[in-house]
Write a structure and sequence with these properties.
- It is a single chain.
- The two termini are 63 Å apart.
- α8 links the parallel β8 and β9.
- α1 packs across α2.
- The chain is rod-shaped.
- With 300 residues, it is α/β, with parallel strands linked by helices.
- It is 41% helix and 25% strand.
- Strands 3, 4, 5, 6, 7, 10, 11 and 12 form an eight-stranded mixed β-sheet that branches.
Length: 300
Amino acid sequence: MLDVRRMQVLRAVVTSGSVTAAATNLGYTPSAISQQVAALEKQAGITLLERVGRGVRPTAAGRLLTEHAAVISKNLAEAETALADLRAGRTGRLGIRYFATAGAALVPPALAALRRDHPGIQVDLKLVDPEDPIPEVESGRADIALVVHPRQGPLRGGVRLIHLLDDPYRAVLPRGHRLAAKRVLDLADLADEPWVGNEWPGGLCLRVMLEACAAAGFSPNFVVESEDYATAQGFVAAGLGVSVIPEMGLGSRHPGVVVRKLRHPEPTRVIHAAVRESSLGQPALVDLIEAFRAAAAARK
């Protein structure tokens, strides 16, 4: 295999016209330059230079390797520039996974900040609700994911959870409901009410709500299942039951419902950014995390 460093020495000799001039330009002795060229000729199995007066000129093989050395030098320079851009966060790609309500509340302002500060970054943005996005981060298919309430079991693949905000659940009642006159409800006030479901079965958000109800001493009586917040509000407005929906899911409120705070306990889903430790050296990812934090802080 040809030695790239020796090819660059050959190129210096050819472009300068002599071994002595190349040695001066490169800071070597003429003997060292001659040894490098001789070693390259041995690798190539053909003569690369021929003497002409006090100088040298390349043979056909010497011209060929000199041309390739120039291409290699150009490619290396481009690679170094591209790598510097990547290190500085001017280029690259970020894989982002999110769930639906985060898509409405947190992702748009964070991506706007990322585009402003790192316009050369390509974004692979995917909604994964109701699936758990952490496996995509663990496997390296994504750099960051917004997740609800740390799942059970240890994280793998060097994944770190960064807290963004706590999202409390609110009681959603039909207008005119007997409990609507109260400003704050005990969760147990809803124990005997028919409930409208709004979460995917088996999901972490549903678990948060059910564990809070268990702490209040009851299990909800679900009479309608909707699996999304907007539809659940419609069922509540129609008088089919009450619902408990996280505050971030109430960005668009149905005119036929009222929303009240809960206590004893207040169900709360905890929202984190899950990131790979190995990706935290990327300036763009660091800035994106800060943008998510800013978006979360703006909701408080």
